[in-house]
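Cross-check.
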Amino acid sequence: RMETDYNPMELQNNTRFEEDSDYRDFEGTDVKDMRLEAEAVVNDVLFAVSNMFVSKTLPCAEDVAYINVETRERNRYCLELTEAGLRVVAYDFDQTDDRLQTPYHETVYSLLDSLSPAYRELFGNAILQRLEALKKESQS
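Predicted model, tokenized:
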């Protein structure tokens, strides 16, 4: 089951940036949105990693959420999700290392592509399967 071509969270977040001041009036709204965005990120790529989940140990704040991911190569990472994007903040679950200065990635796809050759292959295969299914649909 693959549904990576549409992410409703992306649409909601685009409007949130434009109307950010309106949401500031509702206490806790941004916290909920960042956690929801993190859950959407996880659901989007879970098929191509060994394990991935939003951290229950590290705090979600108004502007940040943390995601734990284990690649198919069995490497563990803790990712920070902010409006700037995603970046690795530690090389284990539920950790942050302030000394780590890793680059931000605009998408989870870009970040995982840089970390995991197995992810790259699985994601590419999933896209090919999706394209083949769309081709068959259009021919019938």
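Residues 34-138 form a domain with the copper amine oxidase-like fold fold (CATH 3.30.2280.10). Strands lie at 51-54, 65-70, 76-82, 85-90. Passed to J.P. for a second look.
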